[in-house]
Specification:
Length: 132
């Protein structure tokens, strides 16, 4: 019933193709660009174009920019991240926070830190642009 060799998932195929083309995982690529001070809007366009092209060639589904930073982090990245990109921890539940852009209401268009446990935890924090 099941094939002997584990079939690679769509996601695994994309990650493999991305690494082959760019030399690192999508998340590492995105965080490096952010750490170098690249505008998030520009980066999201640049990344999505790249990801779609890679996915097209590898016949798999692209992991879009919006989902890249939601992926669980590889261990080797944690140290790198600590050095270049500080992610705050939710003061309410202790989970890592993620950078979001307001879709509506008072924060529309503004960047802020939201808890990764959202919607279970609705704690947010102002995002301050850091000069690197
Ligand atoms: Zn929280």
């Amino acid at each position: 019933m099941y094939p002997k060799r584990k079939v690679k998932s769509d996601r695994e195929r994309f990650l493999e193709a991305f690494k082959k083309k760019v030399g690192c995982a999508p998340e590492v690529y995105v965080r490096r660009k952010l750490a170098s001070g690249m505008n998030e809007e520009e980066l999201s366009k640049l990344y999505d174009m790249l990801a779609i092209e890679i996915a097209r060639r590898a016949s798999c589904t692209a992991i879009r920019y919006a989902d890249v930073l939601k992926t669980p982090e590889p261990k080797e990245l944690c140290m790198q991240k600590a050095a270049s990109f500080r992610v705050p921890v939710c003061e309410k539940c202790g989970a890592n926070m993620v950078l979001r852009t307001g879709q509506s209401g008072a924060r529309k268009g503004q960047r802020f830190w939201g808890c990764s446990n959202f919607p279970a935890c609705r704690y947010t924090k102002n995002y301050e642009e850091k000069k690197l």
